Amino acid sequence: MRCFFYGWYLKCQSDMQTLAVIPAIHKTENKCTCSIQIITEDGAWIVPFAVDDFHQEGRVIKIGNNRFGERGFKLAIHTPELTAKGIIGFGPLSPLKYDIMGPFSLVPFLECRHSVFSMRHTIRGKIQVNGQEYDFSDARGYWEGDQGRSFPSEYAWTQCCFADGSLMLSVADIPLAGFHFTGVICAVLYKNREYRLATYLGAKATQIHRGRIKITQGDLELEARLFRSAGKVLKAPKVGDMVRTIRESVACSVFYRFRQGKRTLFEFETDRASFEYEYPR
Q1: What pLDDT, on the 0 to 100 scale, is given for residue 138?
Q2: Among 194, 195, 197, 193, which residue's Cα sits nearest to residue 184?
Q3: What is the DSSP string of the chain?
Q4: How many other β-carbons are positioned within 10 Å of the β-carbon of residue 167?
Q5: Averaged pLDDT for residues 92-108
Q6: pLDDT, mean over the chain
Q7: Quick one: which of 161, 128, 132 has its CA closest to 144?
């Protein structure tokens, strides 16, 4: 592939603090670079690196003196704008039963492919970002990834770890063979049971409007409603180049409700949810 990107999203969430780190490599026809983005409730930073600083062996990525993998990650960033240092250790991961993309994982030429490496795991450690300490003692983590050429032109994504589990939901405009459709991928881990809603299983987005998303599949229904958000600026790939500006709230106010038939499995409002909403308001 001439133009591509490949990146991970590693989130650390406690009852009081949230931090996410995005190591990535990106290639256009003329250049290849890599980067680390860090997002907190207070700000977001992107640190560029030379492609020679990027090394990957299986599920371990190294960018300069920074390391990311199944056991956790280490940050050692020192620039005029950002100092980020510390170590986070992961407990046992919670992978999905099979690829979140399902049969779409076999379809060539997709604009973007999503991966979920762990829905929920314990984390321990401390990170300092420009002098502010993020203490994740017995906190929760989440780990996903993306690869392809570009992020979808329109999409919404949300993720949250909560008392009895974790959820991830994404809806996006998918171009394929000259056509467009709204694709859905969603995984809910609740009381040690995995639920999945996806286009390839019959899921449909019945509502995407003003930060409100509703997904239905058979007798399952998941609703996510964004209440308050203070999105921070991140960079996203467009034909392999990190030139698109998006906004993410790493910790914002969201209401979730998950139903099966007439039974409500859970409903709650939290200020620890992560949300990206790249649809017209």
Answers
A1: 84
A2: 197
A3: --SEEEEEEEEEE-SS-EEEEEEEEEE-SS-EEEEEEEEESS-EEEEEEEGGGEEE-SSEEEETTEEEETTEEEEEEE-SS-EEEEEEEE-S----SS-TTGGGGG-TT-SEEEEEEEEEEEEEEEEEETTEEEEEEEEEEEEEEEEES---SSEEEEEEEETTEEEEEEEEEEEETTEEEEEEEEEEEETTEEEEEEGGGT-EEEEEETTEEEEEETTEEEEEEEEE--PEEEEEEETTEEEEEEEEEEEEEEEEEEEETTEEEEEEEEEEEEEEEES--
A4: 24
A5: 95
A6: 95
A7: 161
Q: What is the pTM of this model?
A: 0.96
Q: pLDDT by residue (tens digit) across 167-178?
A: 999 999 998 877
The pair of structure tokens assigned to 68 is 């990311």
> What is the percentage of the chain residues whose pLDDT exceeds 90?
93
C-alpha–C-alpha distance, residues 66 and 77, integer Å: 8
